[in-house]
Amino acid sequence: MFATEVRYTRFHRGAWILGAWLALSGPAMAQSEATEPSGIGPEVSELLSESSSRLRNLYAVRGDRPIWQDADSVDALVEALKGLDADGLVPSDYRPDDLQAASRAALMEGADAGTRARFELRASRTLLTALTHLQRGKVDPQRINDEWDLSIEPPSLDLAAISRALDDGDVSAAIDLARPPYEPYEQLREGLAHYREIKRQGGWPALMNVEDPLRPGDTGTEVTALRERLAAIGNDQLVAADEGYYPTIELQAPEPRVYDEALVEAVRRFQRHHLLADDGVVGPRTLKALNMSVERRIDQIRANMERARWLLHGLPESFVLVDIAGYDLRYFRPNGDTWRARIVVGQPYRRTPSLRSEITHLTINPTWTVPPTIMREDVLPKVRRDPGYLATKNLSVLSPSGKQLDPASVDWSNPGGVMLRQQAGPNNPLGQLVVRFPNDHLVYLHDTPSRGCSVAHSGRSVPAAFAWRGCWSWLSCCSTIPAPRPMSVA
Predict the structure, then answer these.
(1) N- or C-end of the chain: fewer Cβ atoms within 10 A?
(2) In angstroms, rounded to a whole number, what is the distance separating the alpha carbons of residues 254 and 251?
């Protein structure tokens, strides 16, 4: 299951695919010219002239034919709006009950065409708002954090497909068309349902804040509470449902006060799921995660679903997800498999930005140009203390135009625009492989743990995992990497 902690995630695209959006076809045009049965076409057309372009476009696809002129269609809309709770949205924001009440007046016998037309557009406006929130998120991420880099515009709603679903009376299918169709989002939906069921059943017991860590082999009431806590989230085998049955099935009921092997494995699973060290010891961090309330877990999942909606749209079949707060990278393949690696990211004072971009090429045996921040805060103080530092670290000094300079010719108290570059080699901070993608923050993925940028611990297997352009394998990568010169692969 997707981790339920609050995550500042970023998604990088394995390849960018530009798609042509569905245009009005011959059959759709023929359908739009059909005579609408409700007799409010002129009123709808008049009101649309003062409506949003999105609403006008929906009815343009339909030739101004109405959608919500019978009780069944309105009931289906109300039910679908209430079902958005499963996506972490708040159904009451869309006022489904008010909408249903308004429909009674608009659809009653004798209601005038203007009333019916106004209700028609109100219902469609509500649906389009919900679909937009589901597709790209309700909150503007930059109002929360202006460092979010979301320069890729989400695709427009497929109004033609939505219209066809509505013609079939299937509002749920129209909702499905806007929902992010990617595994991480579906995992969050499943997690939300799971934890809400736990809440419905009463949640879980809090553990005592013990001074010493709980370790395998320990005994006591704290171990019993730990067992019950983990059983509440699905480890049913940790507690005996009815000890009287165990002799008849030739099994021994678990001893609740003993920190046995089954409990150790359950703790390790919990730790892995929450991106903690899976040592089976309940220390301060594991205890804090265990004691978080189910309500807080639900809120975290809902927050992550909103973040996913900001980013999970218009992706190709293969894409890379970097979970900054979880120190985790996942590559999603077209066949459904997932490749994972642990990563290192920037510290809070030099934070890795949240962004979405397109992977464009790989660099094998990269050189490293020292970024301005690292040069100013890390390297220059060392050069001033020790002039031999540059030679020790194999750093060349370059002018702003790229011309190599003699380090002795530079005033290191005020070096101006000089650059420092380290040649490829075993001590290069970028290691032997860099995954590049355009961004304004000078961040990238590379294979050696270091400070600052995202680092994949298993970076040398990245080409094999990405199957880059269908021509990479781990064997060909291994035969290339030992070469001392840089090489880019697009």
Answers:
(1) C
(2) 9
Give the largest Cα separation in the chain, rounded: 93
Integer-rounded Cα Rg, in Å, for the chain is: 29
- The CATH number of 221-292 is 1.10.101.10
| CA-angle at 159, arms to 158 and 164, nearest 5° | 105
Give CA separation, 186 vs 88, 107, 301, 410, in Å: 12, 37, 12, 56
Q: Where in 297-337 does DSSP place strands (E)? A: 319-323, 328-332
DSSP annotation of 460: G
Q: Which residues contact 411 (CB under 8 A, 6 or more apart)?
A: none
Does residue 373 contact residue 350 with C-beta atoms inside 8 Å? yes
pLDDT at 334: 79
Token pair, residue 332, equals 């999603």
Distance in angstroms (rounded) separating the CA atoms of residues 99 and 122: 8
Domain borders along the chain are 1-17+303-367+425-490, 22-179, 221-292, 375-422
Cα atoms found within 13 Å of the Cα of residue 417, Cβ hemisphere only: 5
**pLDDT (tens digit, 9 = 90+) per residue, 47-91?**
988 889 999 999 999 988 999 999 999 999 999 999 999 999 999
- Enter the DSSP assignment of 220: S
- The CATH class for the domain spanning 1-17+303-367+425-490 reads mainly beta
Contact by Cβ (8 Å): 447, 459: yes
192 with 301: CB under 8 angstroms? yes
Cβ 454 vs Cβ 345: under 8 Å: yes
What predicted TM-score, i.e. pTM, was given to this entire model?
Answer: 0.73
Contacts of 42 (CB under 8 A, 6+ apart): 113
Amino acid letter, 153? E
